[in-house]
Amino acid sequence: MSSVKRGKAVIVSIVAVFAALHTLLGIVPGIWRSWMILIQPIEGALLGPYAGFLAALIGSVLSRFIRPRVPIMFIFGLGEPVGAMVAGLAFKSMYSKVLLLYAVMLGAYFLHPLGRELPAWCLWDVYLAFALAAVLFLARGRTRGLDKRARLVVAAILGNEADVLTRIFLFIPFELYKVLGVSEKALPAIWVAGALETPIELGLAVLAAVVGGIPLLMALDKSRIIEYPVT
After folding, report:
1. 145 located within any domain
2. Does any domain span residue 231?
3. Is residue 17 part of a domain?
4. Is 229 domain-assigned?
5. CA distances from 63 to 9, 22, 23, 68, 216 (A)
6. Which of 57, 95, 160, 175 could form a disulfide with 81 if both were Cys (CB 3.0 to 4.6 A apart)?
7. What are all long-range contacts of 31-36, with beta carbons under 8 Å and residues at least 24 apart?
8. What is the dihedral angle through the alpha carbons of 114, 116, 121, 122, rounded to the nearest 10 degrees?
9. pTM of the shown model
10. Do residues 60 and 136 lie in contact, with contact meaning Cβ atoms separated by under 8 Å?
């Protein structure tokens, strides 16, 4: 087997493994979404933005087939692969692309009339993630040698919040709240609840990256089984 074919086979195998793990964690309900948040940053760090996106996309779709939800939730599931992709971009210190993605979705949100009416403070965690990406981009010359452990934590933060922002982007600018039958009067209460709940999930994602992800990366560095990110 040529080195190219072997490399592709390794990528396919790793994507399959993480897609299966993502599916299993996606079946179990979490605080706001599901427990796939625990693996999302590791998907991005190990698989990279492209293979990470694919693994999370497969896992997102399969978990929704196994634990049925209303069909519209398949669309909201796009937040998971976007989150994994952003985690991969962040781990590779590609902060300009992360900033662009955040800026487009936040811009679309505030251009929508509801985006200007809903409590702005409720997106405080998204603003902090956006600010973090901006600071890292501006200081990229000083952060190129950032330790892998620190990059994984950053990936967990930016990836998780990109997932949240993608769902907000679909919910308000794309007006999927109408498809779900949610009235505009009910939105402020949903926003306040989300402002309190999503940071808890962020904390769990970061904790998983520190407790599980960092030891995994260190073990892979010692064993040299694979070179990561694979894409």
Report:
1. yes
2. no
3. yes
4. no
5. 24, 8, 5, 8, 24
6. 57
7. 31/197, 31/200, 31/201, 31/204, 32/194, 32/197, 32/198, 32/200, 32/201, 33/79, 33/163, 33/201, 34/63, 36/60, 36/63, 36/80
8. 10
9. 0.94
10. no
- Is the link from the previous residue into 229 a cis peptide, with omega within 30 of 0? yes
Supply the range of the domain harboring residue 187: 3-223
Paired with 29 in beta bridges are 34
Q: Which residue has the tokens 């251009």?
A: 111
Q: Residue 22 pairs with which residues in a beta bridge?
A: none
Specify which residues 34 forms β-bridges with. 29
Contacts of 175 by beta carbon, 8 Å cutoff, 6+ apart: none
pLDDT 10s per residue in the chain (231 long)?
555 555 688 889 999 999 999 999 999 887 667 899 999 999 999 999 999 999 999 999 999 999 887 888 899 999 999 999 999 999 999 999 999 999 999 999 999 999 999 999 999 999 999 999 999 999 876 666 678 999 999 999 999 999 999 999 999 999 999 999 999 999 999 999 999 988 999 999 999 999 999 999 999 999 888 889 998
Q: How many domains does the chain have?
A: 1
